[in-house]
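Final report, Chapter 2: Outcomes

The project's central promise was a pipeline that accepts a single protein chain and returns its three-dimensional structure in a standardized token representation, suitable for archiving and comparison. That pipeline is now operational. To close this chapter, we reproduce one record exactly as it appears in the project archive, with the input sequence first and the structure output second.
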Amino acid sequence: MNELTFYECDICKNLVYLVNDGKGKLVCCNQPMTKLEAGSEDASQEKHVPAPTRNGNMLDVVVGSVEHPMIPQHYIMWIATVQGDHVQFVHLTPDDEPKASFNISPDDVRVYAHCNLHGLWTAEA
């Protein structure tokens, strides 16, 4: 499982990821939640695609080849990694830099980042 499936409420912006893919529908605020597709928003990739760098058993992630802004109106809310059945999240605030470090194994890693304005973005390491 190196992929996660995320859903968002269009009304209150609750965001969830599936642990188990059951038969029911995810509902929030009395309406079905929307499945997020990484990179589907019209935004500059150079500021949103995670840029992971391996350093031994550490994975350093910076969001964007051009660093993403971190202001209250526009910022990276979190960065996550998925490696097999291990999922790690680092939650960020506008006061943080759009960066995170994760302890990983040598296997392939999927990295996700979520921008409060431009949604979900992903890369592999």
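Archive annotation: Residues 41-124 form a domain with the Immunoglobulin-like fold (CATH 2.60.40.730).
This record, like all others produced under the grant, will remain available to the consortium after the project formally closes.
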